Amino acid sequence: MSALPLAPGFRPAVAAALLALAVDLVYLVVIASQGDGAGSRVGFVAASLACAALAVLGSQALTPRPRAALLGWAAATLWIWTALAIASIGLLVAPAAALSLHTLLRQPGGRVAPLAGAALAVLVVAVGLAGTS
Question: pLDDT band at 1, cuts 50/70/90?
Fold first, then answer.
């Protein structure tokens, strides 16, 4: 079974970045409207989503190995937030995560760089969650 072709001119990396930034904005607006104030955890999640979006976009200017590492980090970060926040914004993050993974899987090269990026994402999220409230 072959993958469905994307529309001509469609740029999955750009779409992933725009979707992640849009979800990040919605997340911040919803938190602000609740009036509880944004804690350090909210800031960490928002910054993490924004960094993942910028990483997907910025990776397109890199050579293959650093691009794969950065895309591995970004895709893993977005999938982690999809899973951890499934009851709130996770479902909204899933399309950006899927498009970033699609972009990663189309890259040439080995598996070490993307796996290193993904491992770093797990570490960053774990440390960030442990250090915020």
Answer: very low
Angle at alpha carbon of residue 123, lines to 31 and 68, rounded to 5°: 100
Phi and psi at 38, nearest 5°, equal -90, 120
What is the phi/psi pair of residue 107, to 5°? -85, 145
Of the candidates 35, 110, 119, which has an alpha carbon nearest to the alpha carbon of residue 77? 119
pTM of the model: 0.91
Q: Is 21 left (phi over 0), alpha (psi -120 to 50) or beta?
A: alpha
- Each residue's pLDDT tens digit, 9-63: 679 999 999 999 999 999 999 988 987 767 899 999 999 999 999 999 999 999 9
What are the structure tokens assigned to 6, written together? Answer: 């994307």
What pLDDT sits at residue 8? 64
Q: Alpha helices, DSSP H only, in the chain?
A: 12-34, 40-59, 64-84, 90-105, 112-130
